Amino acid sequence: MLIKLNTLKKLLLLLLFIPLVSFGQDYNNDSEALKICSSLQVRSFASNSAADNALERILGTIGASKRFVLQPCNNTNNAVATSYKGIRYILYDPDFMNTLSYGNNWGNLFILAHEVGHHINGHSLDLVLYATDAVESVSLAESRKQELEADEFAGFVLAKLQGPISAANEVISKISNDSDDTYNTHPSRSKRLNAVSIGYNKASKGDGQYSESNQAEEFFYKGVESEKKDKKYEAFGFYSKAIQLKSSISEAYNQRAKLQLELFNNLDSAIEDISKAIELSPQEPDLYFNRSTFYKLNDEMQLYYNDLNKVIELNPNDEVALYNRGNLLLQNKYNNDAILDFDRIININSNNAEAYYSRALAKLGLEDMRSEACDDAKKSLDLGRAESKEFLEVMCKE
What we know:
Strand order of the largest sheet: 1-3-2
Low-confidence stretches: 1-36, 38-47, 126-136, 209-213
Order of helices and strands: HHHEEEHHHHHHHHHHHHHHHHH
């Protein structure tokens, strides 16, 4: 990240307020990036295509193709390289970038190159893993080291594109100072300016140490771009090519599984692909959730139930998985167990109208709980579930 956040978890909170969906949580650019940042307006670049072109220019200096999802993100006052469920993102606040550079495109390009540098150097931490404490955040010393590596990369890019080093120095000067950085995530100004200078000079000497090539990832991100443009058959081909080149790329199996169903109505192949993704990434709850939907469509209810259990084991606060499991238990007349799942949802989110309604149905099937069932139905109606009115009129008459 170009400037320090109070904590990465502030960004994490933004990501975790993504609306839950009923079918599956995939890696589509529109369905994930736009949930992370709803704003599409770009002011520091002339258009979205201009921002994409800038990214292509940066990657062109090291001979790489686009392997990131670039997303404008207003009101964050930052630029951030991160990963979310296996997809690399660069999120940036257009106003923030414009403020730093006063519209100077070289300054904006340096900021963007800095974030690319985090990805190129393998710094970005997947927020899903961070949220579940599956990994520890880096130390302050390591964070400062990563910032210097990203600064060096950005200086390298700026020189390769024949931009003035003064543009980078101006940006660094505005966001840093020369106080003691021992307890900071970001290095002091002099260290950062020196890192930029090192990268700039390496490019001038023809040092190509940043060259990187991974065809499988490139085909995967081409698939992401094709899905963004609703070219699903083309995307399917790109994901298949990525898998052919690198059989361990779990994200491609996950995306292709979804398209197996959408394009060819082939549930068996969809389950085969998503199962391979799970084999490669066994700690990713969304993969189990996606497979559970396939099992339900295939009427394999025990396997559906097993996968929901796994989702909840890995992510105890997944409201959708809890809701789906609770309703399955309710349908099979395990009312007490169903109530426990709905209780958990309501403890997580006291405004979940559907959970109150389903709990009302579960309580209705138990002796001496009709009054509590009516209370839950009334609560669901108060929260906006209009259909609960019929329940109250039929089941809760005095």
